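Quick illustration, no need to memorize.
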Amino acid sequence: MAILTTLLVLSCFLVATLASTPNRDSTKEFNALSPISSYITKSTPQNVVTNTIDSCWRAKTNWASNRQSLADCAIGFGQDAIGGKFGDIYQVTDPSDDPVDPKPGTLRYGAIQTEPLWITFEKDMVITLENELMVNSYKTIDGRGAKVEIANGPCITIQGVSHVIVHGISIHDCKPGKAALVRSTPEHVGYRQGSDGDAITIFASSNVWIDHCFLARCTDGLLDVIHASTSVTISNNFFTHHDKVMLLGHSDEYSADRIMKVTVAFNRFASGLIERMPRYVRVIQSLIWLMTCRVRFGYAHVVNNRYDEWLMYAIGGSADPTIFSEGNYFMASNDSATKQVTKRETSEKWSNWKWRSFRDEFLNGAYFVPSGYGSCTPIYSSAQTFIAAQASMVPLLTLNAGPLDCFIPLDEFIPLVASTLQTSMATSHWLLFLSCFILHLAFSTHSAVLNKIDSCWRAKSNWASNRQALADSAIGFGKDAIGGKYGPIYTVTDPSDDPASPKPGTLRYGVIQTQPLWIIFAKDMVIRLKNELIMNSYKTIDGRGAKVEIANGPCITIQGVAHVIIHGISIHDCKPSKPGLVRSTPSHVGHRQGSDGDGISIFASSNVWVDHCFLARCADGLIDVIHASTAITISNNYFTQHDKVMLLGHSDEYTADKIMKVTIAFNRFASGLIERMPRVRFGYAHVVNNKYDGWKMYAIGGSSNPTILSEGNYYIAPNNPAGKQVTKREMKGKLKNWKWRSSKDAFLNGAYFVPSGYGSCAPNYSPAQSFTAAPASLVPVITLNAGPLTCVVGKAC
């Protein structure tokens, strides 16, 4: 404990010292595009959303002492690549390079050895190679625990070898190698003709796995797989700022490439890319035409990759390759001439080439042109096989593409630091390592990507026994809504309904009580109300742990009350109610005039939070906030298949709505919506980090001089040229003075926001209400679980 205390004090002192130390050369694009911890929740491994590869090792805290187990984690055609699994650990301590006589401690010295080696790095380093790095068989280059760059010189050649793993390094700004002598083994120095300037060339090699690397800005390709190379997996890499990204196959004449099998999975093809993601070539048609995807034709499985855009095309090819595109997330650029994902570079009849798209997601007008007949699924062995995720999950599964920040656990780290301090009294590298490690002890490298609300509770496996802690999780104007936090649990056991004399065990009986109640459900149920459900103050309706629907009848009215939370239920197909007697408290039954058929009507109420609900297909609006209601947060909901979605403000004559303050955050406005997302009158609306999949008329509208701040939203406009504008002002007059602002929004498929007004438009939250908006690029991820969650007792939700 004394050692830990000393380290903590030392780290705090060192942060200030190191802040003035010049930064090393680094891959700025990757760092700039990497997630920032203020809105990425680092949670327990049980709550991690990772892809098949990462789930194999990233949740293990002993990765540093068990590095070679990484070799068991590959998938697809490169699954058998073992690298240096059965060899010794070799540590790179020296970033220098000599192509002919490499020194012990350098990367080249380790890479050329004949015995299996698992190569690691003592510290952060930038290695500028003097000529191409020839990697021998049974080698792993493992950058975990350090920031390692191979840059500004020739880069990596994997030629005529097998069982090579390259993991967790940055390779960028690669230059051609010169014609000169280069050592490839301890015994052999050969004359090389000079390399092309690829980041990684895989030439006549097999069983190769490239994982979690950053690749950018090289003279030739970022990754070439050529000359009959096969059994290759390319996964979890971050590609950016390059023209011809990935080439699979040497030339249209090199028929030996028909044996090629490559899996391209979980990669992020980010901004600044032009073509070849990948380009498949060089696979000559066999004399026998088969109706299945056979190895002789060459095969590429492109699966669960994220394509942020491209300037020419994403996937191309020639000479009859077979391509199976599965569960990818294709985001086309705004250029109308480059919407097509595919390009066939041939004058031949390509209609028989087997190019298939299966469960891909196409955004901003992207489309894939398929061809061929017969089965095209990959013929994997049982060990190679994995299940592709849904395309909608890809932004999450590829969020940590590229090198990871991996920290050594405390029980392994303290002895290491103590030993180092004794021998070197802390070089700047060790001081930085120590500081960063101490400051990150609270975090695992395995991060579930949760928004600000969900990060407060979803990682906790005891949510079912501590349900009322949810009330502490709200943000924005509805932050103070406590619902039934300080009351007992009430369990709904009966889905029936009696508006005038509700029975104990029914939902209505619970919501009308005068004391605070936290209302939960004993089982899945569909509740068909016979009249509007009038809620009393200090109530929470909590659907977690069951599938609860209020449907096909009148729905929820929150009128003249305060402190109401509605969480985790589905509300759909709501109908107008008839005039009749409805009980609102145990002691009062009143005659109601009939409701309009809203999903949720918030009328003259305050401190209301609606979270993780599904709302669709109601007779009037899905949510109305009217008659001077205020202090409202509407978050994490899934809206679909509706016309007038959300109304904030009763009418253009009802000036009392000037007090209205509403936060609309992390919602998914999905397909089939027309307008009012929201429509605002008089008050203030902070519309933040929502995803808009499209609209038929407009997304955000208003009248009567409301104030609207649109921040960090993700707007995908419809294809209709007349419907691209996000905004609509429904009033004549001096509209240019209304404060409508867009800040850091993302606009896709031609969407645009028309701002107006002057002066500050900030929400002026209290410290407790305040939160930091995530970048719009993360919105598809942090809204991925909008709507009711599937929560299992005893597990993180």
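Helices lie at 2-19, 28-33, 107-111, 394-397, 410-424, 428-439, 507-511, 779-782.
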